[in-house]
Amino acid sequence: MNSNITGIILAGGKSSRMGRDKSLIKLGEKTLIEHVVKALMPKVKEIIIVTNEKEKYAFLEKVSFVTDIERNQGPLMGLISGISSIDTQWCFVTSCDMPLIDGGIIDFLWQHRYGYIITPSSKDGFEPMVSIYSKNILPYAFDFITENKKSVNGFIAYMSSLNLVKIVDKDLLESKFGNEVFFNINEENDYKKLLEVFNGR
């Protein structure tokens, strides 16, 4: 367990493409969000879930909840809301729909820390939901989002332009932990693929 890091799980999405709440879909005996909590729990000081509907997660144990500072502003506001609530300097941020995440990634990224954000990246862009953030990003994030920019990828690109981001090759992480750790669900076909991967492990 790294007492310097809080785990933050963003669970505020509307699951509009999925048509049902992604976080509560079952994968084996557990919901997707339970898989994420289980992966992070041994690696972080505490886990905070960012949601405006904490009552639906009453079954989760040993987690805390934070609501969005402003609702319906997207994942960047969720990230800001979560980080504003932590008492550690650092946090690992992921999403409730990434049930194959490996907690070992936290240790790996921590060893590469530099600046205010440590994030995997490839030719397709950054992986903001598998990244470590410093609380020092908050003033930059508030300035960025007030300019009506809500993309977390866009924010990381902005921070990178200020030389405040450590980029870790996504291929390196995939070779060490498997490419399934980056798998997230947006629609039913994604869920079918997830089941195939999960059942084949």
Textual characterization of the structure:
It is a single chain. With 201 residues, this protein is α/β, with parallel strands linked by helices. The chain has one domain: Spore Coat Polysaccharide Biosynthesis Protein SpsA, Chain A (Alpha-Beta Complex). It is built from seven helices and ten strands. It has helices spanning 32-40, 75-84, 104-111, 138-146, 152-161, 170-177, 188-199, and strands spanning 5-10, 26-27, 30-31, 47-50, 64-66, 90-95, 117-122, 125-126, 131-134, 165-169. Strands 1, 4, 5, 6, 7, 8, 9 and 10 form an eight-stranded mixed beta sheet that branches. Strands 2-3 form a two-stranded antiparallel sheet. The longest helix is centred in the last third of the chain and has 12 residues, at 188-199. The protein starts with a strand and ends with a helix.
